[in-house]
């Protein structure tokens, strides 16, 4: 059809050559980097995540590091979730909001030391925002993007692969917790995390010169478990109800609308960006919410590049923001951002690229 023009603005991952050697067939862009999205066999890639183990180049999940005497204070200013009790070695899923309470990122926060944090960000610039806030508030911190490159190992057999590589102590790591360690001298941060609900780890590579080496080691350790290359998977993540920031959110989405209300804290006070706005929204109640949608008929929708209008009794009530064929549900399913009055069980019509399709709203996750 057409090609993506490469250039120095579009950064490559330390695993780039390895993914090309392993047959990558498609890339997307994310945080101004190339992100592998497919290796030519979508069903094999899906079932490896569900039943086996898959390895993903997710170097696009960039780290924004905040360190220095005021680092903890700035980290709390930047997220409306109370992180006072976050321990060194612990990660937390934290919304980032603007002053109006609109979601502008949904990173995982890693507390590396009392005065050192990483925000592992979604596809939206954050470094300049964090640095500007630090300067405006007169805080004594350093804000920068270290060249750290996560490699995800996901699926029910991921734990065995990681234990084989790093040792059995890794089986005790709790969800979102991590440890700084090394693999044959390659410095990494090892975390139990990842954008699937099938279990797994993320190996944050700290020396970008050693991407090929790390990729080869994971591949070798995974061989007995049938590991293969993959990527953040639309089928699995929609079945599991995981949010894709920027795909399922728009320029007005607040955390309550996309099931992130539980990751916000009331009454954090005026220093925290967006906290007062979220307190007000919580009192009034959000105007939209996110539900699942199951489409009738066995035909997958042919396009996923636009939000699809959703109508109930001929009135527009919202949009399907992402949709996909679900191999386990044997139906086309999607995430819908709809008016708060719409509820699970409601019959709706979705305006797909090939015509209008009947559908029913449901609770999330699907599986
Ligand atoms: N890994 C790393 N960084 C990332 C992502 C990642 N940064 C961007 C993006 N992905 C962040 N988004 C998410 C969204 C959801 C989850 C993780 C990252 C997630 N959610 C669970 C859920 O919603 O059920 C659990 C949340 C919880 O229990 O706190 O795991 O993938 N490094």
Number of strands: 21
Query: How many helices?
Result: 8
Residue ranges: pLDDT <50 for 5 or more in a row?
A: none
Largest sheet: 6 strands, mixed
Distance between the termini: 35 Å
What portion of residues is helical? 10-25%
Order of helices and strands: HEEHEEHEEEEEHEEHEEEHEHHEEEEEE
Structural class: alpha+beta
Chemical compounds bound to the protein: (6S)-5,6,7,8-tetrahydrofolate
* pLDDT averaged residue by residue: 97
Strand order of the largest sheet: 12-13-14-11-3-15
> Rg, please?
21 Å
Strand content: 25-35%
What shape does the CA trace take?
A: globular
Write a compact overview of the structure shown:
The chain is an alpha+beta fold and 367 residues long. The chain has helices at 16-21, 42-51, 71-78, 127-136, 158-166, 211-222, 234-239, 275-284, and strands at residues 26-30, 33-38, 54-57, 63-67, 91-93, 96-97, 103-105, 108-113, 116-120, 142-144, 149-154, 178-183, 186-191, 200-205, 228-230, 288-295, 308-312, 315-326, 331-339, 347-352, 355-362.
Can you put this structure into words, describing what you see?
- The chain has 367 residues and is of the alpha+beta class.
- It is 19% helix and 32% strand.
- It contains 8 helices and 21 strands.
- The protein has helices at 16-21, 42-51, 71-78, 127-136, 158-166, 211-222, 234-239, 275-284, and strands spanning 26-30, 33-38, 54-57, 63-67, 91-93, 96-97, 103-105, 108-113, 116-120, 142-144, 149-154, 178-183, 186-191, 200-205, 228-230, 288-295, 308-312, 315-326, 331-339, 347-352, 355-362.
- The structure holds (6S)-5,6,7,8-tetrahydrofolate.
